[in-house]
Structure formats: C-alpha cells, structure tokens
Amino acid sequence: MRELSIGKNEAGQRFDKYLKKLLCQAPGSFIYKMLRKKNIVLNEKKATGAERLKMGDQVKLYLSEETYLKFSSRQESRGSVKYLPSVDLEHLPFTVLYEDEDILMVNKPAGMLSQKAKPEDVSANEYILSYLAATGSFENRPDEAFCPSVCNRLDRNTSGILIAGKTLKGLQEIARQLKAREIQKIYRCIVEGNLTEACRIKGYLRKGWEENKVCILPEARTKDDKWIETEYVPIEQYRDATLLEVRLITGRTHQIRAHLASVGHPVIGDTKYGGNMCPKRNMLYLHAYRVCLEGKAEVIAPLPEEFLKLSDTLEKE
User: Tens of pLDDT along 86-110?
Assistant: First the structure.
C-alpha cells in the first residue's frame, strides 16, 4: 500500500488526471477499475476521479509493490530526474532573468536544446530541473506526479528567453496565455540585406516541406497550412545587413526564420533557410529578446556577446 499527500503542485487538478500522471504506464481502464473497487481512495473515501484535489488531501493506493512499480515507471520514462545534470549555482549554464513562486525565465545560450530530442540528450529543461532542485523548488521525488517544465521552445542555435512553469498553476497559466496570444514575444536578429522601413508581413506556413523545415505560401492550399503574421522594425543599418526587432503576431515553428527568408532577408547564419553569411559555425543570429507577461514585469534578455561582436565587425551605413 502507498499513501501520498497532495502538495501545492498537485492541488487544483482532477483526481483522475493526477492518477494518470502518477501511474503513467497504466491504461485509463485500469485506473477507473481501481477507483470503482476502492483499491484507490481519496481521504479514506471511494472516489470517481472527477474530484478536484486540494492541498493536504490523502491518497491511498492498495496496490502490490510490483503493480505500483510496473505502472509508475515515471522515473525512467521522463529521463528523470534520477539523471539530472549537476549544477553549480555560482556558474549556471544560463542566466536567471525572472523568478517567482510559479514561473522561471532564463536566458538560454545558443547551442543548447530547449527540450530533449533523444533520450540521451541533456537540454535546458534538465538544467532548469537541476536548478529548481538545488534551490528547493523541486523535490525530485519518484512519486511526484507533477514535474516542472519549459513552456515555450527555441531552436538549438537560437538564444534568449525560455519560460518554465515551476508549479502546475504556473504551467497552466503560461499555457493559457500562450494559447490566447496574450504573451508578447519580441526577438532581435541580424538579417542579410537592407531593410529601411517597419513592415508587417503575412502568409501561410506549411510544416514538413522537408525534414524539420517549413515553407511560406501566399495562400492556403491545404487545411494544414497555418496563417502567420510577423512584424519587424529596423534598429540599425549596416552595409549588407540589418539589425531587426521582430514581433510575433502568431507563433509557429521556424516562423521568423522562414518568413524573413521568404522575402529575401534570411537571418545571418541560417543556412537551412538560404543564409550565406556565416561568421561562426552553429551560430544563428536570432535572439528571443523581450517577453511581456500579462500582469507581470517586462523581462529582457541581453544580446549575447557574439551578436555584439558581429555588429562591431559589420560596416555601418
């Protein structure tokens, strides 16, 4: 028998959702059967799964240890938490830009994955979990049903602001704001060619054009083609390049990279979308610069040193 206490990260969700996270390898039919047979109870009472959990609620699972371990092999399936990289709080692999009880924002360096692409990868997500564990915000228990996670993604070679939900409340609120487009995301990038006026460009984005690549179309041709809008403002002019501030009106995979390339101004270093200038290998001169969260302060990630070095070497107009 296992007895678990509901903490702040589990509170507020439906009981069945909690159980499906806890027993992540079990089919839903098994969980509902255990509820009906009172092999899983909430506060010593029979439950349906529709109950909303409150902090301090007690959950008992009258399951054999073998059954519990079989269905709760979360510690292996989430890469876990057993194998988090160690972090030195004095020398973190990212800069913490903002933190409160529910969310964390960090400045991800270029070259670091936002989330795992393969089981053996170590990404910003794992480093964030290590940081939260080291600072006491994440207990790293094998039976914990909630795990903090990044809410947005940046390409490996794009630097800038990553938002992570430290609590279930924070994760759900950021997900809601992203879906409702209430979060303003501002990027800075250096593109090939000269752009002298602010502009809003529009089109349709199609995924899967080639492996891990998208294309931009003037009009939708299939139901999977997604409407996109991208707004940019020139910040500084160089002889053969322009520093832009870019605002995502919509947010799609590779939107900035593909949209700017489609109008003849690929991001410097972006060989995937036609960029020819490549001053440093694996450096994409695209940076998630500013984020404005509803009800919270505006957060800015300073431009990386490589951006500044390139700006210094380019001949200004």
Answer: 888 989 999 999 999 999 999 999 9
Angle between helices 28-36 and 15-22 (to 10 degrees): 120
As a whole number of angstroms, the distance between CA 273 and CA 214 comes to 9
For residue 316, which of 223, 250, 243, 244 has the smallest C-alpha distance?
Answer: 243
Residue pLDDT, tens place only, 76-92 = 444 444 467 888 898 99
Q: What is the pTM of this model?
A: 0.79
- Interior angle at CA 242, CA 96 and CA 250, nearest 5: 60
Burial 215-243 (b: 16+ CB within 10 A, else e): bbbeeeeeeebbebebbbebeeebeebbb
The two structure tokens encoding residue 131:
């940081």
